[in-house]
Design goal:
It contains 4 helices and 13 strands. It has about 230 residues and is an alpha+beta fold. The protein has 2 domains: about 90 residues, Ribosomal Protein L25, Chain P (Beta Barrel); about 70 residues, RNA Polymerase Alpha Subunit, Chain A, domain 2. A 6-stranded mixed beta barrel has the order 1-3-2-6-5-4. The protein has a 4-stranded mixed beta sheet with strand order 10-7-9-12, with no helix packed on it. Strands 8-13-11 form a 3-stranded antiparallel beta sheet. A hairpin with a 5-residue loop joins strand 2 and strand 3. The longest helix is centred in the C-terminal third of the chain and has 46 residues. The N and C termini lie far apart (about 110 Å).
Length: about 230
């Protein structure tokens, strides 16, 4: 797992008014859990954005006024309209102790199903897991090379040594579906076959009508001769 270092400052006051002031100045209030006591601090939003606007998962070393603490990100809260970071929670890293963390899902290979006209559906780009920090990988790697159309990989199919996945086993992570174009082409072909059948039936009906008129005419001619 990659490591990043960020500077922060311990908070002397918490609550609504001090928190609003921090945000106005471009800072984000944060809390570290999991240690002997919770640590309240703040850091520059621009520095913290490096942790969330990326596919990587970091082991973070915060320098809090000269005190070093190592953590992993637990949760990020965003403003509902502006989308800027409002608050961040971290968990202190202790060797041998389990932590819960969200890992990105990376897909490797070129799917057979996609080459045959299928479409890739990614249902889960991240997965929530638990394990010792020294056992947690940077990402969950999935090889999709042998996936055919109609096949999927679920959470229960994933196997990461030493890691517990905290998601429903039946949750689909990735699937290869039939493309809309292929479905549309099949429907067009079926409609074309039905149209040809209807045209043939109409032609047959017209032919029968013409034959009927000929018989009537022949009968009338025979009576006239008599």
């Amino acid at each position: 797992m990659k490591t990043i270092e960020i500077k922060g400052h311990l908070r002397e006051a918490t609550g609504g008014k001090p928190t609003k002031e921090l945000r106005r100045e471009g800072h984000v209030p944060c809390v570290v859990y999991g240690g002997e006591k919770n640590i309240h601090f703040y850091a520059d939003e621009r520095e913290l954005m490096k942790l969330v606007y990326t596919k990587d998962v970091y082991r973070i070393k915060f320098d809090l006024d000269g005190t070093s603490v190592e953590v992993v990100l637990r949760e990020t809260q965003y403003h509902p309209v502006k989308d800027n970071i409002m608050h961040m929670d971290f968990v202190e890293v202790v060797v041998g102790k389990q932590v819960s963390i969200t890992l990105p899902v990376l897909l490797n290979g070129s799917s057979v199903g996609i080459r045959n006209g299928g479409v890739l559906r990614r249902n889960a780009k991240k997965v929530f897991v638990r394990g010792r920090i020294e056992d947690i990988p940077e990402a969950i790697q999935i090889d999709i090379s042998n996936m055919n159309i109609g096949e999927s990989i679920k959470v229960g199919d994933l196997n990461i040594p030493g890691i517990e996945i905290l998601e429903a086993a039946n949750r689909v992570v990735v699937a290869v579906k039939t493309s809309r174009r292929a479905i549309a082409e099949e429907e067009e072909e079926e409609e074309g076959e039905e149209g040809e059948g209807e045209e043939g039936a109409e032609e047959g009906a017209e032919g029968s009508g013409e034959g009927g008129e000929s018989k009537s005419e022949a009968s009338a001619e025979a009576k006239a001769e008599e």
